[in-house]
Amino acid sequence: EKLKKLEEAKIIFVVGGPGSGKGTQCEKIVQKFGFTHLSSGDLLRDEVKSGSDMGDALNQMMQKGELVPNEIVLDLIKEAMLDKVDESNGFLIDGYPRKVEQGLEFEKKIGEPEIVLFVDASDDTMKERLLKRGETSGRVDDNEQSILNRIDTFHKATEPVIDHYDKQNKLRKVDSERAPDLVFEDIEKILNDVTI
Ligand code: B4P
């Protein structure tokens, strides 16, 4: 029965480069619209913290700025969605898909997104934000070399995702070079159209 509910759930993908502001905007979206926020990165970091056999390997891949295998991410997302589906009025899937194939697999196993929100910032801006966050975050991947690798992975693997959903008229792009509140004003307008 939960699986059936999941098929009917409203889904929004949030994509963007590392440090573009995905997580930041998702918090604001949850405050205003009450969706269930699932960040692929957070789910993976929780898995690392849990000390599972898989954790060490995941941590190394994340530190290198590489993508982890999709079966792992997709299983974690699906499990978390099933957990929340009874109380949810829609899901914000943050940081996924990072490759076109990830999107296709998700659609096959779970469902299609209503829209794909693309949080857009330049490489320089992303790098600067992540270096700043790295001063306090304690994240293994918030150092200069990891950041450069993550930006590279974004261009190679994730940019095709943006074209893919643009062709389906599902892409909604917001300019994330501005202060978080201003970026959110644009997102509000986009989501008001989706939710009504
Ligand atoms: P993520 O956890 O998704 O990390 P991220 O891309 O850096 O985004 P995050 O949400 O943390 O940062 P945000 O832009 O909000 O991924 C980490 C790793 O996990 C990946 O490299 C990969 O290895 C793995 N992974 C995740 N998903 C995967 C998948 N689907 N498949 C395979 N592997 C996967 O913000 C960054 C900083 O900018 C913050 O400090 C924030 O305060 C600041 N900021 C945000 N907006 C701002 C603004 N408008 N102005 C000024 N500062 C701003």
From TrEMBL:
The lineage's top-level taxon is: Eukaryota
Q: Where in the cell is it found?
A: Cytoplasm
Q: What do we know about how this protein assembles, alone or with others? A: Monomer.
> Could you tell me what this protein does?
Catalyzes the reversible transfer of the terminal phosphate group between ATP and AMP. Plays an important role in cellular energy homeostasis and in adenine nucleotide metabolism.
- The molecule here is called adenylate kinase
- Organism the protein comes from: Brachionus plicatilis (Marine rotifer)
